[in-house]
């Protein structure tokens, strides 16, 4: 089931990529039903908090009519950052499933694990590496194209 819902998160990430956003997608599931989905919009909105996870949490809260997202699973293509991990904990998501690890900001096991830290009053089960290669390649290819585009722009300025 995790792979099925991760594929839906990947579809959300592709929507972000179409907008020139970093391709990160998230889906929140309750009782095997998608209650929200979102993708990264930070460049579009020029707002630091419009990460896929936060947007999905906001929509899920609206869908259930509560800030408590108990008995839900959040699927996200990239390991949550500290900001998103905090929101996940505070919204009481039970389980987080992510694709690619984030060596620069990952707080679900890579740099630290905020989600399973028993010093907080809530913890989430964390499942990592679901469709990790597909999630990771999407990001790798996106940044490779971005670097190539910047290189070409510099070259045009020199001419």
From TrEMBL:
**Record-annotated residues binding Zn(2+)?**
51, 81, 84
TM ranges = none
Q: Which cofactors are required for activity?
A: Zn(2+)
Q: How is the cofactor bound?
A: Binds 1 zinc ion per subunit.
- Where is the CMP/dCMP-type deaminase domain positioned along the sequence? 1-118
Q: Give its E.C. classification number.
A: 3.5.4.33
The entry lists its GO molecular-function terms as: tRNA-specific adenosine-34 deaminase activity; zinc ion binding
Is-annotated flag, keyword Metal-binding?
A: yes
Recorded family membership: Belongs to the cytidine and deoxycytidylate deaminase family. ADAT2 subfamily.
Question: Subunit structure, per the record?
Answer: Homodimer.
Official protein name in the record? tRNA-specific adenosine deaminase
The protein's organism comes out as Domibacillus antri
């Amino acid at each position: 089931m995790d792979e099925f819902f991760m594929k839906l998160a990947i579809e959300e990430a592709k929507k972000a990529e179409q907008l020139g956003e970093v391709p990160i997608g998230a889906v929140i599931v309750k009782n095997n039903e998608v209650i929200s989905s979102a993708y990264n919009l930070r460049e579009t909105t020029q707002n630091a908090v419009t990460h896929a996870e936060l947007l999905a949490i906001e929509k899920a809260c609206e869908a259930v009519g509560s800030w408590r997202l108990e008995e839900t699973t959040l699927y996200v293509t990239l390991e949550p950052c500290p900001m998103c991990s905090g929101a996940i904990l505070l919204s009481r998501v039970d389980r987080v499933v992510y694709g690619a690890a984030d060596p620069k900001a990952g707080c679900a096991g890579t740099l630290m694990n905020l989600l399973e830290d028993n010093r907080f009053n809530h913890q989430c089960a964390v499942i990592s590496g679901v469709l990790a290669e597909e999630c990771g390649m999407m990001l790798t290819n996106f940044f490779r194209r971005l670097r190539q585009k910047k290189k070409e722009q510099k070259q045009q300025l020199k001419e």
